[in-house]
């Protein structure tokens, strides 16, 4: 009798679990932040130029299956990094929307900042070369005042205006 | 018609070659008659280019499908406006439009009242004519706009529905005006170098041209973004697609140029750098065309079946090598700089940092765009470099640029003293920090958003102070009323205050970008007829699903009523359009905009019983992005507007020649 009850409970639990799972799959929000984090890592290859998060399932059959696979992995408890690893192992780095931050692809990420840093240092030395008195404190008090500068400009524009009026 | 239309291209080519040769001969023999003949030739080329444009317009509007171009890009049912705009839907038509603009600009320069009698004119004309010859060669032998088909089709293929949008009418035109416009400062710079005129005359003369080209480039990008937002249904406005990048790069370098020329004007410095920026900007416009028309990179914007890229690559190579040769040959003259910096902290230094960041951003975009090719060449793997890369790399660079933009107006020329720094920055800095703290208290807690908005607040305060001090100083001298004082202050220095309006516009755009990127909310819901979707403060009632026919297109639409906090705010009608002559359907989004946020609804899917799936997005602060774009236009126009006292032609002090 006991075993029958257990089997009955197990069956109920299974049916309940399956129905919950079905509802989950059916009502899954393909625009949720969690799904975005996982799906936006992968490029759709249908030619739309979008990632699998943005690609419209109405016009692209490829993304329908891909999205379902991702949901399945998420339901298994995989995080975005594990999903990423899974697809990279199968399709290679080409499937990603951005290069990996390792190996040769790291050059893609580092190069803009390295160039900016080198150019920044070069500009510092150029400014240093141009500054008249080397080694002087750059924040030395100066008699020149901003308001005076503005006033000077306004005054000269007014003089110019009058000059053009009468000459 | 066939003979006439083709004749406009080949006669145009012949006249362009003639004008180029005769002007070059006139320059070398110092014969004004020959130069005049060449300048007359430019007018004739404009007539040819105009006739070619009119011919294609005529063929498109009268649906003459025996022509390949008409058949490829139009159909009988296409509305007349889109039949006309189909002129720039394809390769050859868009190149014809490009050629027309280039010839138009050349005529404006060759017969400019301000440049009358100036010895630079023949050189500038010759350089622009070199460009014109290239474009006519392409139109005559590679991308021919007037090719007849062997068999006349009953119907044309129609225009890509994505291009049937008001944004797409203006977007390519403005972008081409910007691209072509950058050829003008390039031609002036080259002419100045050839004539050994290393003063800033060419910069002053081309200032307006550069701002106009920059404005059109900005407009091109804005209209492109607006089109993507409303037409593509993905809720975004910028995808860092290689072709978008191609128009953003020259925009960045041209922006750098517009700032660094001020140092050359004031201090007679950075001459080589400025010419380098102009060469780079011009080369990047050609590089962009190479990207669009070569197919080397995957892009949704690319023209199909095109091998034109190679020709543009060769032309770009010749132009850049030629320009660098001229630059190097004048290196000794250019490096004789008269000016020097008085301090590490000054307006001059901030302009250099601004240039570093702008050119750094352009390099970052360039590097990301070409990296798939680099990766393929080095290790045989063509990786994708998409939005996550560009957002990560560009965000800190562009945010730093915003900071420099905020700080720069209050720095003094020559030298900023400690007293000056304290006086100008203490209050703005405190207010910006208070604003950032307030944001955190109010729930804005993402680091990038808080820093970004903080910098924007700083920018608003420093720019307000700049206006305030100017008005105060003016009123001290004139005792004018406030409004009159603001008006006169701004109109007396249009470039400066126009620039500030542009800065404020950029800040608004940044607000829109930060808000929409960090705090967007979206969901996808399947609902039955009569049900509601609830997102944030919104309740969207799904009331009706129906179908209608417009011409040869079938439209499925949903009618929805929108409530915010229980109050009805309007109706929306998201649609899916199925085209009679195009496989891919497109989405027309349902949109309700406010200063706070956009409600953006896409009809994604439906079933026979009326059950439908909707994508609902809430994009915060999007309206500010468009307001900022509008302010960029206003600021640029204000800066180039010919005021009563602005119409001054800079004095030419360069080398005298016998021809002009």
Automatic annotation (TrEMBL), chain A:
UniProt protein name: Cytochrome c-type biogenesis protein
Domain CcmH/CycL/Ccl2/NrfF N-terminal positions: 12-148
InterPro entries: CcmH/CycL/Ccl2/NrfF_N, CcmH/CycL/NrfF/Ccl2_sf
UniProt key word Transferase: no
Keywords: Heme, Iron, Membrane, Metal-binding, Signal, Transmembrane, Transmembrane helix
UniProt cross-references to Pfam families, sorted A to Z: CcmH (PF03918)
Source organism: Neobacillus niacini
Region ranges (Disordered): 138-167
Record-annotated membrane-spanning stretches: 106-127
Similarity comment: Belongs to the CcmH/CycL/Ccl2/NrfF family.
Keyword Signal carried by entry: yes
Biased composition (Acidic residues): 139-154
TrEMBL record, chain B:
Gene Ontology terms for molecular function: heme binding; heme transmembrane transporter activity
All residue ranges annotated as the Cytochrome c assembly protein domain in the record: 89-294
Recorded topology in the membrane: Multi-pass membrane protein
Keywords on record: Cell inner membrane, Cell membrane, Cytochrome c-type biogenesis, Membrane, Transmembrane, Transmembrane helix
Span of domain Cytochrome c-type biogenesis protein CcmF C-terminal: 313-640
InterPro entries in the record: CcmF_C, Cyt_c_assembly, Cyt_c_biogenesis, Cyt_c_biogenesis_CcmF
GO biological process terms held by the UniProt record: cytochrome complex assembly
Keyword Flavoprotein: no
Pfam families, alphabetized: CcmF_C, Cytochrom_C_asm
GO CC aspect terms: plasma membrane
Cell membrane as UniProt keyword: yes
Transmembrane segments: 6-28, 40-60, 80-111, 123-143, 169-195, 207-228, 248-263, 275-296, 308-328, 349-373, 393-413, 425-444, 450-468, 497-515, 623-641
Localisation: Cell inner membrane
Signal peptide: none
Predominant location category: membrane
Coiled-coil intervals: none
Domain of life according to the entry: Bacteria
Role of this protein: Required for the biogenesis of c-type cytochromes. Possible subunit of a heme lyase.
Family: Belongs to the CcmF/CycK/Ccl1/NrfE/CcsA family.
Name assigned to this protein: Cytochrome c-type biogenesis protein CcmF
Organism of origin: Neobacillus niacini
